[in-house]
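G., before I forget:
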Amino acid sequence: MMGKGESLVGCMTLDQCWTLSETWYAGRLDRHYQRPPLGSFQELLRRAGLVGEAWSLTKPVGIT
Amino acid sequence: MRGEEGSKGCTRREALGSQAHREVPDEHRSSGGAARPRRGATLCWSWMTSNDLDLAVRHRVYTAMAASGRAPTAARLSLELGAELGEVRTSLERLDEGHALVLDAVTREVRMALPFSNISTPYRVESGGRGWDANCAWDSLALVRLLGLRDAQVLDRGGPGRDGRVLTVAAGNLAERDGVISSARPAWRWWEDIVFT
């Protein structure tokens, strides 16, 4: 949650966040806290409906 | 080396040259299944690769944060793992560089083990009389998932210009679904300063 006057770049609903948290973190205690590769996290974001420049994990082309 | 004295779970082999060789139990070796240290065992880190030590350090940090909400210090990790303090600090730096942990800029102790925060924050998860601090709103929900909490209160204690809020997790479900979580930076800039993010 952002304070007043702060710009909002990437927004997600609580529902999206709850779903994403399950796919990203559930069961991680058993998997020795290994994080999936960057590519798969991008896919998780996409599946949660989080697309566009604000949710790109790599710098978009053309951005300086 | 601390790992050579009274080490449990290791067998002694004949020394060659100036070094004492010790067998590293299979459970302490790196593997695709991610070996875990036995509870109470002192690891023979001298034969472990850097990756083995990093895995052990990260696992100990996460285990401690899940159990108590706070990370062990480097000195504590050194004691528990039977590793030299300098090696543990080097391991922590590697984990920080790899974004597996986040170290405090000054003390170089653990600041974050995402989604856990090692300091008090406005974002807190409480369940069954226990509590954990999260780094942000997203991490507070992630923390519930990570710990597999069926029932919990997810607290946002608010801040300047921002009201607080309480979310309820009941029987594994998030009761309230209205609202948004936002970030001041695009995802590709999160790690420029993850503490700010």
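Residues 14-25 of chain A form the longest helix (12 residues). Helices of chain A lie at 14-25, 38-47.

More on Monday.
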